[in-house]
Amino acid sequence: MAYVISWLSVALFNVSMLSGLIVAFVYKPDIAYASVQKLTYLIPYGNFFRELHYFSSEAFLVAILLHVILEILKIKINIDQSSWNYSLFALLLLFFLMFTGYVLKADLSGLSAGEVSLSLLKQTPLLDNFLPLFQDNSMFVWKFYLWHILFLPILLTYAVYVHVKDLKTKYFIVGIGITVFCMVVFAMPKDIPLDTVALHVEGPWFFLGAENLLMLGMSPMLVDVVIAFPFLLLIVYYYFKNYRVVINYLLLIWAALYAYFSFI
Amino acid sequence: MQDQHNSRVVDNFRRKLIKKGLKFLPLIGVGAFTYPLIKFVNFEEVDTISFAIPLSKIDKKITKKNKVLIYKNAKGIKVYDAHCTHMGCVLNFDEKSEKFLCPCHGSEFSITGVRLKGPAKRDLDIISSRIENNILYIG
Question: Is the CB of A111 less than 8 angstroms away from the CB of B119?
Answer without folding.
Answer: no
